[in-house]
C-alpha cells in the first residue's frame, strides 16, 4: 500500500512509520504545521507540532530513507479546533480539542488530501486496533490498557477506518516502543510525551480564554438561586471545578462546593455539593458510529460508556431517541459536562460516540 505516515515528532509516530516501512509499504512522512507562530518551541512535555517536533520528525524520516514534507494546516486547525474551543467555552460547554483535532484535522483534512494524492491509508502512532468483524471493520482498544487511545479515536467513521493504519495497537507496552526506537537509533526514543492542550503550552487555560474573550463580572449562585459569590467571566469555569471559586458565603454544612452548571446567557455559575455532580443520564445529538451501526439503535442496548480519555468504562444502556444518543449508566457518573465526548463500547470494540449536549442529575435540587 501507499502509506502517508503522520509524523508528530514523537516516539510513537516514529516507530509507527518505521513499522510501515518494514511491512513493505511505500511510505511518505508528513508533519502537520498547526501554528504560524514562527518561534513556537516545545517546553519539556508541553506543546506539540512545534518547530522542534518538525525537526525531530525529519530526522526520523531521513534515517528511514523516506520522503518527508511539512504541510501547513494552521488555518484549518484555527477554524476547526481553536475557534471551536473558544466558542464551546463561550457557550458554557467543556470541549475536548484532541477529539476535535482527530475528527477535523488528522482523519478528515489530512486523510482527504492523502486520498486525493493517491495514498491508500494514513498511518499514525495511536494505540488502537482495527479488526475485521462480521459486519465490517471494527475499532478496538489496544492491548496496552494504560496507553489505550481508542477513546480519542471514537469520532472516526467506517469510511475513515477503512483508510487508517495503526501499527502500534498490538504492542504490549510503551516501554517496548521506546526500546525499539532506541534500537533503531531514533533521537526521540526518550522524548517525553506531550500533554495538556497543545495550543496553550503554559497550561493556563483561564488566562488564555480571558485574552481571547475578555472578562465580564457575574454572579455565582447556589442550587436555590441565592448569590454566594462573584466571578470575572463564566467562560473560565467548568463543571466539577472546586478551586478558584472565591465564594463569599460558606455552605450551611461547611463542605466544599463544586461547579454544577455554567450559564453563559446570564453569565452565571451554579455551585453545589459534590453529591450533585452525580449524573444519571447524558445525551447528544451529534453522534457517529465507528464502523457498522447497531442493527436497531432505537431499541435500548447494553454497552459501556467512557467520558474521559483515562476514565474507567461504566456499564450502561444506550438508545437513539428523538434524534439523540441517550446513555443511562448503571451507576451515576460524576462531573460530566456538556461539550465532553461520551464514547460507547461493546467490550473492547468502539461502537460510537456523541458530544454531550445535556445531562440529567441523579440528585434533584433540594435533596
From TrEMBL:
One GO CC term on file: cytoplasm
The reaction(s) this protein catalyses: S-sulfanyl-L-cysteinyl-[protein] + uridine(34) in tRNA + AH2 + ATP = 2-thiouridine(34) in tRNA + L-cysteinyl-[protein] + A + AMP + diphosphate + H(+)
Classification via InterPro entries: MnmA-like, MnmA-like_C, MnmA-like_central, MnmA-like_central_sf, Rossmann-like_a/b/a_fold
Taxonomy, superkingdom: Bacteria
Region described as Interaction with tRNA: 147-149
Family annotation (Pfam families): tRNA_Me_trans, tRNA_Me_trans_C, tRNA_Me_trans_M
Keyword entries, A-Z: ATP-binding, Cytoplasm, Disulfide bond, Nucleotide-binding, RNA-binding, Transferase, tRNA processing, tRNA-binding
SUPFAM superfamilies, sorted: Adenine nucleotide alpha hydrolases-like (SSF52402)
Site (Interaction with tRNA): 126, 340
Subcellular location: Cytoplasm
EC number per UniProt: 2.8.1.13
Residues the entry annotates as binding ATP: 6-13, 32, 125
Occurrences of domain tRNA-specific 2-thiouridylase MnmA-like C-terminal (ranges): 283-356
Residue positions of the active site: 101, 198
CDD domains: MnmA_TRMU-like (cd01998)
Major place of residence: cytoplasm
Any single biological process term in GO: tRNA wobble position uridine thiolation
Database matches in HAMAP family: tRNA_thiouridyl_MnmA
Family stated for the protein in its record: Belongs to the MnmA/TRMU family.
Described function: Catalyzes the 2-thiolation of uridine at the wobble position (U34) of tRNA, leading to the formation of s(2)U34.
Protein name, as recorded: tRNA-specific 2-thiouridylase MnmA
Organism taxonomic ancestry: Bacteria, Bacillati, Actinomycetota, Actinomycetes, Micrococcales
The encoding gene: mnmA
Amino acid at each position: 500500500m501507499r502509506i502517508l505516515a503522520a509524523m508528530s515528532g514523537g516516539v510513537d509516530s516514529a516507530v509507527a512509520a518505521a513499522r510501515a516501512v518494514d511491512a513493505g509499504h511505500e511510505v511518505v512522512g508528513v508533519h502537520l504545521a498547526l501554528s504560524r507562530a514562527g518561534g513556537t518551541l516545545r517546553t519539556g512535555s508541553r506543546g506539540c507540532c512545534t518547530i522542534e517536533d518538525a525537526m525531530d520528525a525529519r530526522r526520523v524520516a531521513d534515517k528511514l530513507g523516506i520522503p518527508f514534507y511539512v504541510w501547513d494546516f494552521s488555518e484549518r486547525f484555527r477554524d476547526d479546533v481553536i475557534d471551536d474551543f473558544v466558542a464551546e467555552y463561550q457557550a458554557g460547554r467543556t470541549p475536548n480539542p484532541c477529539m476535535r483535532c482527530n475528527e477535523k484535522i488528522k482523519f478528515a483534512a489530512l486523510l482527504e488530501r492523502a486520498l486525493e494524492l493517491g495514498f491508500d491509508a494514513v498511518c499514525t502512532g495511536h494505540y488502537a486496533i482495527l479488526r475485521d468483524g462480521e459486519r465490517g471493520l471494527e475499532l478496538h482498544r489496544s492491548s496496552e490498557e494504560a496507553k489505550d487511545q481508542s477513546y480519542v479515536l471514537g469520532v472516526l467513521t467506517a469510511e475513515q477506518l477503512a483508510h487508517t493504519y495503526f501499527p502500534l495497537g498490538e504492542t504490549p507496552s510503551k516501554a517496548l516502543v521506546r526500546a525499539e526506537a532506541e534500537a533503531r537509533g531514533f533521537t526521540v526514543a526518550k522524548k517525553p510525551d506531550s500533554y495538556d492542550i497543545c495550543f496553550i503550552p503554559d497550561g493556563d487555560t483561564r488566562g488564555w480564554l480571558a485574552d481571547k474573550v475578555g472578562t465580564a463580572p457575574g454572579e455565582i449562585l447556589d442550587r436555590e438561586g441565592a448569590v454566594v459569590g462573584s466571578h470575572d467571566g463564566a467562560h473560565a469555569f467548568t463543571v466539577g471545578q472546586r478551586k478558584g471559586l472565591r465564594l463569599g458565603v460558606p455552605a450551611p454544612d461547611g463542605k466544599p462546593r463544586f461547579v454544577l452548571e455554567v450559564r453563559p446567557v446570564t453569565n452565571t455559575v451554579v455551585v453545589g455539593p459534590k453529591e450533585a455532580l452525580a449524573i444519571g443520564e447524558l445525551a447528544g445529538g451529534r453522534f457517529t458510529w465507528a464502523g457498522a451501526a447497531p442493527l436497531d439503535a432505537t431499541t435500548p442496548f447494553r454497552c459501556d460508556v467512557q467520558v474521559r480519555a483515562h476514565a474507567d468504562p461504566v456499564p450502561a444502556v444506550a438508545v437513539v431517541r428523538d434524534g439523540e444518543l441517550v446513555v443511562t449508566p448503571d451507576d451515576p457518573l460524576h462531573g460530566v459536562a456538556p461539550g465532553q465526548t461520551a464514547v460507547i463500547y461493546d467490550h473492547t470494540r468502539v461502537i460510537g460516540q456523541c458530544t454531550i449536549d445535556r445531562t440529567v442529575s441523579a440528585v434533584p435540587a433540594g435533596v
